Amino acid sequence: MRTALVTGSAGFIGYHLAARLLAAGWQVVGLDCLSPYYDVTMKERRHAMLAESPGFTPVIGKLEDPGRLMELFARHRPDAVIHLAAQAGVRHSIDAPRDYLEANLIGTFELLEAARAHPPAHLLMASTSSVYGANTEMPFEERQKADTPMSFYAATKKAGEAMGHSYAHLYALPITMFRFFTVYGPWGRPDMALFKFTKAMLADEPIEVYNHGRMSRDFTYIDDLVTGITGLIEAVPGDAPVGSQDSLSPVAPFRVVNIGASQPTPLMDYIAALEEALGQPAQKILKEMQAGDVPATWADTSLLTALTGYRAEVDVRTGVARFVDWYRAYYGA
Protein backbone atom coordinates (compact mmCIF):
# COMPACT_ATOMS: atom_id res chain seq x y z
CA MET A 1 0.00 0.00 0.00
CA ARG A 2 1.50 3.29 -1.12
CA THR A 3 1.72 6.41 1.02
CA ALA A 4 1.12 9.96 -0.19
CA LEU A 5 1.95 13.12 1.73
CA VAL A 6 -0.52 15.89 0.87
CA THR A 7 0.31 19.34 2.17
CA GLY A 8 -2.66 21.67 2.54
CA SER A 9 -4.97 18.70 3.14
CA ALA A 10 -7.63 20.77 4.90
CA GLY A 11 -7.79 23.17 1.97
CA PHE A 12 -10.25 23.09 -0.90
CA ILE A 13 -8.08 21.20 -3.37
CA GLY A 14 -6.16 19.23 -0.75
CA TYR A 15 -9.34 17.82 0.75
CA HIS A 16 -10.70 16.62 -2.59
CA LEU A 17 -7.33 15.16 -3.62
CA ALA A 18 -6.85 13.33 -0.31
CA ALA A 19 -10.37 11.90 -0.54
CA ARG A 20 -9.70 10.62 -4.07
CA LEU A 21 -6.40 9.01 -3.02
CA LEU A 22 -7.97 7.35 0.02
CA ALA A 23 -10.74 5.95 -2.17
CA ALA A 24 -8.06 4.52 -4.47
CA GLY A 25 -6.40 2.70 -1.59
CA TRP A 26 -3.55 5.05 -0.70
CA GLN A 27 -2.42 5.81 2.82
CA VAL A 28 -2.54 9.61 3.09
CA VAL A 29 -0.64 11.81 5.52
CA GLY A 30 -2.24 15.25 5.49
CA LEU A 31 -0.40 18.33 6.75
CA ASP A 32 -2.25 21.61 7.29
CA CYS A 33 -1.78 24.57 9.61
CA LEU A 34 -5.50 25.50 9.60
CA SER A 35 -4.62 29.09 8.72
CA PRO A 36 -7.27 31.69 9.68
CA TYR A 37 -7.07 33.22 6.17
CA TYR A 38 -10.67 31.98 5.87
CA ASP A 39 -13.16 30.05 8.01
CA VAL A 40 -11.16 27.55 10.09
CA THR A 41 -14.34 25.61 10.90
CA MET A 42 -14.66 24.67 7.23
CA LYS A 43 -11.08 23.39 7.22
CA GLU A 44 -11.69 21.39 10.39
CA ARG A 45 -14.78 19.81 8.84
CA ARG A 46 -12.85 18.79 5.74
CA HIS A 47 -10.18 17.12 7.89
CA ALA A 48 -12.84 15.45 10.02
CA MET A 49 -14.41 13.88 6.94
CA LEU A 50 -11.03 12.61 5.77
CA ALA A 51 -10.34 11.22 9.25
CA GLU A 52 -13.34 8.90 8.85
CA SER A 53 -10.99 6.81 6.71
CA PRO A 54 -8.49 4.66 8.68
CA GLY A 55 -5.94 5.42 5.95
CA PHE A 56 -5.75 9.12 6.81
CA THR A 57 -3.22 10.59 9.23
CA PRO A 58 -3.81 14.29 10.00
CA VAL A 59 -0.91 16.50 11.07
CA ILE A 60 -1.46 20.10 12.18
CA GLY A 61 1.46 22.46 11.68
CA LYS A 62 3.17 24.97 9.42
CA LEU A 63 5.35 24.07 6.47
CA GLU A 64 7.89 26.67 7.43
CA ASP A 65 8.44 25.34 10.97
CA PRO A 66 12.06 24.10 10.88
CA GLY A 67 12.28 20.32 10.92
CA ARG A 68 8.56 19.56 10.73
CA LEU A 69 8.59 18.33 7.15
CA MET A 70 11.91 16.57 7.64
CA GLU A 71 10.38 14.59 10.50
CA LEU A 72 7.27 13.71 8.48
CA PHE A 73 9.34 12.49 5.53
CA ALA A 74 11.59 10.44 7.79
CA ARG A 75 8.68 8.83 9.64
CA HIS A 76 6.34 8.08 6.74
CA ARG A 77 8.72 7.78 3.75
CA PRO A 78 6.02 8.84 1.27
CA ASP A 79 6.05 7.35 -2.21
CA ALA A 80 4.41 10.49 -3.63
CA VAL A 81 4.32 14.01 -2.27
CA ILE A 82 1.71 16.48 -3.51
CA HIS A 83 2.55 19.95 -2.27
CA LEU A 84 -0.59 22.11 -2.26
CA ALA A 85 -0.13 24.13 0.93
CA ALA A 86 0.43 27.82 0.24
CA GLN A 87 -0.82 31.24 1.12
CA ALA A 88 -3.35 31.79 -1.66
CA GLY A 89 -5.11 34.84 -3.03
CA VAL A 90 -3.93 37.51 -5.44
CA ARG A 91 -5.52 40.44 -3.62
CA HIS A 92 -4.31 39.43 -0.16
CA SER A 93 -0.71 39.34 -1.42
CA ILE A 94 -0.92 43.10 -2.00
CA ASP A 95 -1.77 43.72 1.65
CA ALA A 96 0.18 40.96 3.40
CA PRO A 97 3.19 39.95 1.26
CA ARG A 98 5.13 38.50 4.20
CA ASP A 99 2.54 35.72 4.55
CA TYR A 100 3.47 34.64 1.03
CA LEU A 101 7.20 34.87 1.69
CA GLU A 102 6.94 32.58 4.70
CA ALA A 103 4.48 29.96 3.39
CA ASN A 104 5.29 29.93 -0.31
CA LEU A 105 9.05 30.43 -0.30
CA ILE A 106 10.36 29.30 3.08
CA GLY A 107 7.76 26.54 3.28
CA THR A 108 8.69 25.28 -0.18
CA PHE A 109 12.37 25.36 0.75
CA GLU A 110 11.67 23.21 3.82
CA LEU A 111 9.75 20.76 1.62
CA LEU A 112 12.56 20.52 -0.93
CA GLU A 113 15.14 19.93 1.79
CA ALA A 114 13.04 17.12 3.26
CA ALA A 115 12.61 15.57 -0.20
CA ARG A 116 16.38 15.80 -0.76
CA ALA A 117 17.01 13.90 2.47
CA HIS A 118 14.24 11.33 1.91
CA PRO A 119 13.48 11.25 -1.83
CA PRO A 120 9.96 10.22 -2.87
CA ALA A 121 9.36 8.47 -6.17
CA HIS A 122 7.67 11.66 -7.38
CA LEU A 123 7.29 15.15 -5.95
CA LEU A 124 4.41 17.17 -7.40
CA MET A 125 4.14 20.86 -6.54
CA ALA A 126 1.27 23.27 -7.15
CA SER A 127 1.85 26.40 -9.16
CA THR A 128 -0.77 28.66 -10.73
CA SER A 129 -1.95 30.13 -14.01
CA SER A 130 -1.12 33.50 -12.42
CA VAL A 131 2.56 32.93 -13.33
CA TYR A 132 1.66 33.70 -16.96
CA GLY A 133 1.10 37.26 -15.76
CA ALA A 134 1.01 39.81 -18.57
CA ASN A 135 1.29 37.19 -21.34
CA THR A 136 -1.27 37.79 -24.09
CA GLU A 137 -0.67 34.82 -26.41
CA MET A 138 -3.55 32.40 -25.89
CA PRO A 139 -3.92 29.63 -24.95
CA PHE A 140 -1.19 29.63 -22.31
CA GLU A 141 1.34 26.90 -23.09
CA GLU A 142 3.93 25.59 -20.63
CA ARG A 143 6.97 26.55 -22.71
CA GLN A 144 5.97 30.21 -22.90
CA LYS A 145 8.08 32.59 -20.86
CA ALA A 146 6.46 33.50 -17.55
CA ASP A 147 8.54 36.47 -16.50
CA THR A 148 5.92 39.18 -15.93
CA PRO A 149 4.02 38.34 -12.71
CA MET A 150 1.23 40.77 -11.89
CA SER A 151 1.12 40.03 -8.15
CA PHE A 152 3.49 38.99 -5.39
CA TYR A 153 1.47 35.78 -5.08
CA ALA A 154 2.33 34.94 -8.69
CA ALA A 155 5.96 35.90 -8.10
CA THR A 156 6.28 33.49 -5.17
CA LYS A 157 4.73 30.64 -7.17
CA LYS A 158 7.09 31.27 -10.10
CA ALA A 159 9.99 31.33 -7.63
CA GLY A 160 8.78 27.96 -6.34
CA GLU A 161 9.05 26.57 -9.87
CA ALA A 162 12.63 27.82 -10.15
CA MET A 163 13.52 26.39 -6.75
CA GLY A 164 12.04 23.05 -7.75
CA HIS A 165 14.02 22.96 -10.98
CA SER A 166 17.29 23.59 -9.16
CA TYR A 167 16.65 20.72 -6.72
CA ALA A 168 15.59 18.42 -9.56
CA HIS A 169 18.86 19.18 -11.34
CA LEU A 170 21.18 19.07 -8.35
CA TYR A 171 19.72 16.05 -6.56
CA ALA A 172 17.96 14.10 -9.37
CA LEU A 173 14.58 14.61 -7.69
CA PRO A 174 11.70 13.88 -10.11
CA ILE A 175 9.51 16.98 -9.85
CA THR A 176 6.34 17.99 -11.68
CA MET A 177 4.94 21.49 -11.26
CA PHE A 178 1.27 21.87 -12.17
CA ARG A 179 -0.39 25.18 -12.93
CA PHE A 180 -4.03 25.46 -11.85
CA PHE A 181 -6.64 27.52 -13.68
CA THR A 182 -9.47 29.06 -11.55
CA VAL A 183 -10.69 26.00 -9.67
CA TYR A 184 -14.27 25.91 -8.34
CA GLY A 185 -16.75 23.45 -6.89
CA PRO A 186 -18.18 22.12 -3.60
CA TRP A 187 -16.17 22.94 -0.46
CA GLY A 188 -14.56 25.82 -2.36
CA ARG A 189 -12.76 28.77 -0.80
CA PRO A 190 -15.01 31.55 0.55
CA ASP A 191 -12.72 34.22 -0.93
CA MET A 192 -13.33 33.03 -4.50
CA ALA A 193 -15.80 34.78 -6.78
CA LEU A 194 -18.39 31.98 -7.05
CA PHE A 195 -18.65 31.68 -3.28
CA LYS A 196 -18.95 35.43 -2.77
CA PHE A 197 -21.46 35.83 -5.60
CA THR A 198 -23.66 33.03 -4.25
CA LYS A 199 -23.62 34.41 -0.72
CA ALA A 200 -24.50 37.92 -1.89
CA MET A 201 -27.27 36.85 -4.26
CA LEU A 202 -28.98 34.67 -1.66
CA ALA A 203 -28.96 37.70 0.65
CA ASP A 204 -30.42 39.89 -2.14
CA GLU A 205 -27.23 41.93 -2.18
CA PRO A 206 -25.37 43.17 -5.27
CA ILE A 207 -22.22 41.52 -6.59
CA GLU A 208 -19.10 43.40 -7.69
CA VAL A 209 -18.12 42.62 -11.28
CA TYR A 210 -14.61 43.80 -12.16
CA ASN A 211 -13.39 45.18 -15.47
CA HIS A 212 -17.08 45.78 -16.23
CA GLY A 213 -17.43 42.05 -16.83
CA ARG A 214 -14.97 42.05 -19.72
CA MET A 215 -13.01 39.10 -18.39
CA SER A 216 -12.76 35.39 -19.10
CA ARG A 217 -11.36 32.48 -17.15
CA ASP A 218 -10.53 28.85 -17.82
CA PHE A 219 -12.85 27.74 -15.01
CA THR A 220 -11.83 24.24 -13.89
CA TYR A 221 -14.18 22.01 -11.89
CA ILE A 222 -12.56 20.45 -8.85
CA ASP A 223 -13.17 16.83 -9.93
CA ASP A 224 -11.42 17.46 -13.25
CA LEU A 225 -8.48 19.07 -11.49
CA VAL A 226 -8.07 16.12 -9.12
CA THR A 227 -8.22 13.72 -12.08
CA GLY A 228 -5.36 15.67 -13.64
CA ILE A 229 -3.26 15.57 -10.47
CA THR A 230 -3.77 11.87 -9.78
CA GLY A 231 -2.93 11.04 -13.39
CA LEU A 232 0.33 12.97 -13.12
CA ILE A 233 1.44 10.98 -10.05
CA GLU A 234 2.27 8.11 -12.40
CA ALA A 235 3.81 10.37 -15.08
CA VAL A 236 7.24 10.66 -13.46
CA PRO A 237 9.60 12.94 -15.41
CA GLY A 238 12.42 10.96 -17.00
CA ASP A 239 14.93 11.40 -19.79
CA ALA A 240 12.69 11.29 -22.85
CA PRO A 241 10.19 14.02 -23.77
CA VAL A 242 6.62 13.09 -24.67
CA GLY A 243 6.20 14.74 -28.05
CA SER A 244 7.34 18.13 -29.25
CA GLN A 245 5.13 20.02 -26.77
CA ASP A 246 6.78 18.57 -23.66
CA SER A 247 8.16 21.08 -21.14
CA LEU A 248 10.61 18.47 -19.79
CA SER A 249 13.85 20.16 -18.75
CA PRO A 250 16.95 19.27 -20.77
CA VAL A 251 19.03 19.14 -17.57
CA ALA A 252 16.69 17.74 -14.90
CA PRO A 253 13.81 15.30 -14.27
CA PHE A 254 11.47 18.29 -14.13
CA ARG A 255 8.45 19.48 -16.09
CA VAL A 256 5.64 22.01 -15.86
CA VAL A 257 2.08 20.97 -16.75
CA ASN A 258 -1.13 22.99 -17.10
CA ILE A 259 -4.32 21.60 -15.56
CA GLY A 260 -7.42 23.39 -16.79
CA ALA A 261 -10.62 22.95 -18.73
CA SER A 262 -8.99 24.32 -21.90
CA GLN A 263 -12.21 26.27 -22.43
CA PRO A 264 -12.22 29.98 -21.55
CA THR A 265 -15.61 31.20 -20.30
CA PRO A 266 -16.63 34.88 -20.24
CA LEU A 267 -17.26 36.07 -16.70
CA MET A 268 -20.79 37.17 -17.62
CA ASP A 269 -21.57 33.62 -18.81
CA TYR A 270 -20.27 32.28 -15.50
CA ILE A 271 -22.59 34.67 -13.66
CA ALA A 272 -25.46 33.64 -15.95
CA ALA A 273 -24.88 29.99 -14.97
CA LEU A 274 -25.10 31.02 -11.31
CA GLU A 275 -28.30 33.01 -11.94
CA GLU A 276 -29.79 29.92 -13.58
CA ALA A 277 -28.75 27.63 -10.72
CA LEU A 278 -30.12 30.01 -8.08
CA GLY A 279 -33.24 30.90 -10.07
CA GLN A 280 -32.75 34.64 -9.63
CA PRO A 281 -30.96 37.51 -11.38
CA ALA A 282 -27.86 39.14 -9.97
CA GLN A 283 -27.68 42.82 -9.12
CA LYS A 284 -24.36 43.83 -10.68
CA ILE A 285 -22.08 46.68 -9.68
CA LEU A 286 -19.61 47.14 -12.53
CA LYS A 287 -16.14 48.18 -11.40
CA GLU A 288 -12.66 48.76 -12.81
CA MET A 289 -10.05 46.00 -12.96
CA GLN A 290 -8.46 45.17 -9.62
CA ALA A 291 -4.73 45.56 -9.08
CA GLY A 292 -2.81 42.37 -9.81
CA ASP A 293 -5.59 40.87 -11.94
CA VAL A 294 -5.50 39.82 -15.60
CA PRO A 295 -8.31 40.03 -18.19
CA ALA A 296 -8.16 36.42 -19.40
CA THR A 297 -6.74 32.94 -18.86
CA TRP A 298 -6.88 29.89 -21.11
CA ALA A 299 -4.99 26.64 -20.63
CA ASP A 300 -3.43 24.57 -23.36
CA THR A 301 -3.79 21.09 -21.82
CA SER A 302 -2.34 19.08 -24.69
CA LEU A 303 0.72 18.08 -22.64
CA LEU A 304 -1.46 16.82 -19.78
CA THR A 305 -3.51 14.83 -22.28
CA ALA A 306 -0.37 13.33 -23.82
CA LEU A 307 0.91 12.31 -20.39
CA THR A 308 -2.31 11.01 -18.84
CA GLY A 309 -5.14 10.91 -21.40
CA TYR A 310 -6.85 13.75 -19.48
CA ARG A 311 -10.02 15.39 -20.76
CA ALA A 312 -12.05 17.87 -18.72
CA GLU A 313 -15.56 16.48 -18.31
CA VAL A 314 -17.61 19.00 -16.27
CA ASP A 315 -18.95 22.06 -18.08
CA VAL A 316 -19.53 25.37 -16.29
CA ARG A 317 -23.34 25.10 -16.05
CA THR A 318 -23.10 21.65 -14.46
CA GLY A 319 -20.26 22.59 -12.14
CA VAL A 320 -21.90 25.79 -10.92
CA ALA A 321 -25.17 23.93 -10.27
CA ARG A 322 -23.30 21.33 -8.22
CA PHE A 323 -21.66 24.09 -6.19
CA VAL A 324 -25.02 25.74 -5.51
CA ASP A 325 -26.50 22.42 -4.37
CA TRP A 326 -23.59 21.97 -1.96
CA TYR A 327 -23.81 25.59 -0.73
CA ARG A 328 -27.51 25.30 0.04
CA ALA A 329 -26.99 22.02 1.92
CA TYR A 330 -23.95 23.29 3.87
CA TYR A 331 -25.48 26.60 4.95
CA GLY A 332 -29.13 25.58 4.92
CA ALA A 333 -29.77 28.36 2.41
From TrEMBL:
InterPro entries: Epimerase_deHydtase (IPR001509), NAD(P)-bd_dom_sf (IPR036291). Residues 4-235 form the NAD-dependent epimerase/dehydratase domain. Gene3D superfamilies: NAD(P)-binding Rossmann-like Domain (3.40.50.720). Keywords: NAD. The keyword NAD applies. The keyword NAD applies. This is NAD-dependent epimerase/dehydratase family protein.
